[in-house]
């Protein structure tokens, strides 16, 4: 078979070569219908575009990068899909860039900016402790999405979308206390982690204080540093130690659903039941919190709304409609089978 | 503070500028210790390398791309980590590229080859139905990892690492039959999907035949096409319909653990128990299969070994030690709480 050219494709489609090129390169000036038709003909005829030309076009195209810390965290699954949809709807292309736990996301972003001529960046997950000077090296608009921020940041220096981790953690702890639980174990991040873990820990503490309950440091457990953070295995290992510590408690609040699942497993293995012997609560509202047995009481983050708002703010920044924005979404306390009143 | 230069960093480290540059650019000719020391000093002093120079170096560096279909599938989590470790150990850099369900991975790969001057490619997940002509457009070595292959492929045209999906599915079905189950519902991929779903379906069918059991088409259920495939939600929705169909069965074999979790939830909601009323078996050996309640009987794929072997074969191809290789790993039947004998 002779090699098919772009001219052949244009003829088959009854359109010009420019239109075919626009379809291939995801150019904004082509209708969705025409593009779909062209791509169908391309696919059916196994046409392979000339790549050098294509890359030239592409590198000049408009690209948004999403930099993600903790790509294996199921919390981000739905968000990634929304990002992709919203970015494509704006006729931009989308790059998903994984950032390692120990990697500097600003460094990665600066490099990507150059390589890909980015128009905007979303930082997703992890926590942020970069200086104003460092941030100012980013030359394109960016939004921090579901990232824990340390308080020394000037709100004018960046944009963000998230829930109020302090307040939502307070809400869950307050709920457990109102169910009669006074001895609530907390599974959280290590104390030198200035992240959502810290904010959720502070919310827990404040709720206990407001109810006049003492903080028992023996009930505050950090995730294991030698096990991947926010995993079922980490919650399981920590809870096994908690149970062995002989410290009394009636409830566990784990700052993620995955940790809560691991906690339940450790309780089952100790021959105890959830919630009859111990109430267990999570955070995030992952799918597994619904499908687990017992289903988990949790704080459900509005992930789709957070993702949509992130992109909306990013494009407002790109189009210079705003200089910065901070949006905080409320999350829902979802009461399910894993917690019970002991009053 | 005056801007720190690469010369300052070199002085602080007591090494030459070239060494600092090598540390930054992940060059092979530098010891791990020196590199770690240099990177520590760079981090402590908030030094930002000159990016243009750095990018030039980088684009000439040796890069492996991993193209993944179904990035949100927890099955790939462990594999991604192994890929990263092994590729870094070889002093190559690593790009993780997400491919959409409907995207043509060969197209994506061809584009990446040019942009990044790749040295090798791993295709992870999904299924492969590209022609020999299409495959031959890839100019660098590649390995298909845990990908279902249709039979019309010539083994000389590619390399692959996976389990034997047919055989492992047979193993699970055979086990269930030996526990006294004759009416085994199957939750699998749609029949026009020439993927692992098809292979696992064939294994199920063969096991029934070998035991002289009739195939009841009413017990074979495809995942819903309007719900993301291989999710808990899909298994849940299908099982609800299965239960409502009034078709008799004593066990469900779901071709992934996520589907099996959803199946359990649907059974619980119908007021039934696992395994007392229905046995439920999964496939993959995901973390959740251990942490779920009841823990799930499953086929555990040796994901770490598969990932390691994938990289080993890829580098053998790169170094022209081999022209192609196919490695099939055995998987383990792991019997847990979710299945029981009804003999």
From TrEMBL, chains A, B:
<keyword id="KW-0804">Transcription</keyword>
<dbReference type="InterPro" id="IPR010982">
    <property type="entry name" value="Lambda_DNA-bd_dom_sf"/>
</dbReference>
<dbReference type="InterPro" id="IPR046335">
    <property type="entry name" value="LacI/GalR-like_sensor"/>
</dbReference>
<feature type="domain" description="HTH lacI-type">
    <location>
        <begin position="4"/>
        <end position="58"/>
    </location>
</feature>
<keyword id="KW-0238">DNA-binding</keyword>
<keyword id="KW-0805">Transcription regulation</keyword>
<dbReference type="Pfam" id="PF13377">
    <property type="entry name" value="Peripla_BP_3"/>
</dbReference>
<dbReference type="InterPro" id="IPR028082">
    <property type="entry name" value="Peripla_BP_I"/>
</dbReference>
<protein>
    <submittedName>
        <fullName>LacI family transcriptional regulator</fullName>
    </submittedName>
</protein>
<dbReference type="InterPro" id="IPR000843">
    <property type="entry name" value="HTH_LacI"/>
</dbReference>
<dbReference type="Pfam" id="PF00356">
    <property type="entry name" value="LacI"/>
</dbReference>
């Amino acid at each position: 078979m002779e090699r098919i050219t772009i001219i052949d494709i244009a003829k088959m489609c009854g359109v010009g070569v420019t239109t075919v090129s626009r379809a291939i390169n995801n150019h904004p000036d082509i209708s969705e219908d025409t593009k779909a038709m062209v791509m169908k003909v391309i696919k059916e005829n196994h046409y392979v575009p000339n790549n050098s030309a294509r890359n030239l076009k592409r590198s000049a195209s408009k690209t948004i990068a999403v930099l993600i810390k903790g790509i294996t965290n199921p919390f981000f699954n739905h968000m990634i899909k929304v990002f992709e949809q919203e970015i494509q709807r704006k006729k931009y292309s989308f790059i998903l860039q994984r950032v390692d736990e120990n990697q500097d996301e600003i460094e990665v972003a600066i490099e990507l900016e150059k390589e890909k001529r980015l128009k905007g960046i979303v930082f997703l997950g992890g926590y942020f402790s970069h200086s104003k000077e460092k941030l100012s090296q980013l030359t394109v608009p960016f939004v921090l999405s579901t990232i824990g921020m340390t308080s020394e940041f000037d709100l004018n220096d960046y944009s963000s979308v998230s829930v109020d981790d302090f307040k939502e953690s307070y809400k869950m702890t307050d709920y457990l206390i109102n169910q009669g639980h006074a001895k609530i174990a907390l599974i959280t991040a290590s104390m030198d982690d200035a992240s959502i873990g810290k904010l959720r820990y502070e919310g827990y503490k404040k709720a206990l204080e407001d109810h006049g309950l003492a903080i028992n440091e023996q009930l505050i457990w950090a995730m294991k540093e030698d096990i991947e953070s926010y995993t079922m295995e980490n919650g399981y290992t920590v809870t096994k130690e908690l149970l062995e510590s002989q410290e009394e408690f009636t409830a566990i609040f784990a700052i993620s659903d995955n940790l809560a699942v691991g906690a339940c497993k450790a309780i089952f293995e100790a021959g105890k039941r959830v919630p009859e012997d111990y109430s267990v609560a999570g955070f995030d509202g992952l799918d597994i919190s619904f499908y687990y047995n017992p289903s988990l009481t949790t704080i459900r983050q509005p992930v789709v709304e957070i993702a949509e708002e992130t992109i909306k703010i990013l494009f407002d920044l790109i189009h210079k409609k705003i200089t910065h924005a901070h949006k905080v979404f409320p999350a829902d306390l979802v009461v399910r089978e894993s917690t019970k009143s002991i009053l």
